[in-house]
Amino acid sequence: MSTLSDFNHQLLQFLSSSPTPFHAVSSMTELLINAGFIPLKENESWSLKDFQGYFITRNDSSIIAFTTGSQEYSKHGWRLVGAHTDSPCLKVKPNADLYQQNYWQLGVEVYGGALLNPWYDRDLSLAGRVTFLNSQKQVCSALINFEEPIAVIPSLAIHLDRNANKERSINPQTDIPPILSLIPEDNTNKPTLSKLLISHLNGAGYQDIKEILDYELSFYDSQTPALVGLNKEFIASARLDNLLSCFIGLHALLNSEYQKNEVPCLLVCNDHEEVGSQSHCGAQGPFLQQTLTRVMGCPITAAQVMANSLMISVDNAHGIHPNYADRHDANHGPILNKGPVIKQNCNQRYATNSETAAIYKWLSQQQQVPFQSFVVRTDMACGSTIGPITAGELGVRTLDIGVPTFAMHSPRELAGNQDGYILNNVLQAFFKTTELPS
């Protein structure tokens, strides 16, 4: 088992290398291959072996990794863990080039429920997937990541908006297009996004680009993830929601001794959770169910397998903020580094019930680690996760759990340095548990 220090070091590396869902899946793919997992393709037949690990991707932004165990699926059921790869961000529009007041900017859309104010005055970079035509008229795609800061959204000076600290609002159409550069004074050879992408791809070894056909690009804060605080007890990073959960689930799966573990285990990390999950690679799409059906085969009774299975949906929880403690129910305010949070909601915004909560508490007690509970204030709306969606799609018992965080949906979020490691250890035990309480 890795130490807390090793776990957090690997986590920071993963966060840094994963500025978009495409890069997150690429990072996870590399880790899986290094651990001996075998890639599968959806358009090919599968021949699976006992005690082997496999993985499959869809849209380059969602991934399922699983271990077969003894392939006695109806006997043991599945140990399932789910998370999502996407985060709120600023996505570049299709016709993005803007030329205003001698500045080159890019038009953006707001993806998901982003906190917009923190995007101002940050060193922004750009990453995503680009699809292009080569000289042989072949359609190709490549991941792109500028890494260096290439853009900024400057705040309006307080001298020009004296009420900024009281009532400044943000118009997402007009107020947040990032600035990339000045336009040449002779107004010739204007910079364009297409030229920028071709130049960068050329530098990355793609020399045969005839035309940029399309792209899915996101701006991101280029400040690197870090341990912060007087005693380095916090993790500060972009995309903790929900790449932190993706890494925890993957790390637990890779360290579950799958080569001798009879129980079949699975990790699914879906894209598009932040915008409703309804896509061919989202949790409300058929990706997980189709994969499970292919793995188990037709003779297996799905209802019997699911009755012996458990899904743990992992997505960050709201830690109680010391400056805004009144936004929490007084008895349900999770504290950072006091353990993962069992998330409950009677209106099924979370899928946890008393039995699945009890199973997690039982697992935690076996590991002698703490846990906490979260219920949103009764007079406030509650967010949701892939948990209820997956429970409804598969008919599987489901638990919603998460690491407590601050500043959720900000370009820089904050979590404790111990909670992810604690949850990792519980999930490792979960993956190796042959019999769950019924």
Automatic annotation (TrEMBL):
<keyword id="KW-0378">Hydrolase</keyword>
<keyword id="KW-0862">Zinc</keyword>
<dbReference type="GO" id="GO:0004177">
    <property type="term" value="F:aminopeptidase activity"/>
</dbReference>
<keyword id="KW-0482">Metalloprotease</keyword>
<dbReference type="GO" id="GO:0005737">
    <property type="term" value="C:cytoplasm"/>
</dbReference>
<dbReference type="GO" id="GO:0006508">
    <property type="term" value="P:proteolysis"/>
</dbReference>
<dbReference type="InterPro" id="IPR023358">
    <property type="entry name" value="Peptidase_M18_dom2"/>
</dbReference>
<keyword id="KW-0479">Metal-binding</keyword>
<dbReference type="GO" id="GO:0008270">
    <property type="term" value="F:zinc ion binding"/>
</dbReference>
<comment type="similarity">
    <text>Belongs to the peptidase M18 family.</text>
</comment>
<keyword id="KW-0031">Aminopeptidase</keyword>
<protein>
    <recommendedName>
        <fullName>M18 family aminopeptidase</fullName>
        <ecNumber>3.4.11.-</ecNumber>
    </recommendedName>
</protein>
<dbReference type="Pfam" id="PF02127">
    <property type="entry name" value="Peptidase_M18"/>
</dbReference>
<dbReference type="InterPro" id="IPR001948">
    <property type="entry name" value="Peptidase_M18"/>
</dbReference>
<dbReference type="GO" id="GO:0008237">
    <property type="term" value="F:metallopeptidase activity"/>
</dbReference>
<keyword id="KW-0645">Protease</keyword>
